[in-house]
Amino acid sequence: MSLTFRRATPADAPFAVPLIYSSGPAAFDFVFAHPARGSAQDFLQAAFVSAAGEFSHRQHWVGELNGRVVATGTAFSGAANLSNSLAAARQIFAFYGLRHAWRVIVRGLRIERLIQPPSRQVLYLAHLGVAPELIGQGLGSQLIEHLLSQAATLKLHTAALDVTASNPLAQKLYERLGFRVCEERASTLPGIAAHRYMERPLLAD
Question: Which pLDDT tens digit goes with each residue over 96-109?
Answer without folding.
Answer: 999 899 999 999 99
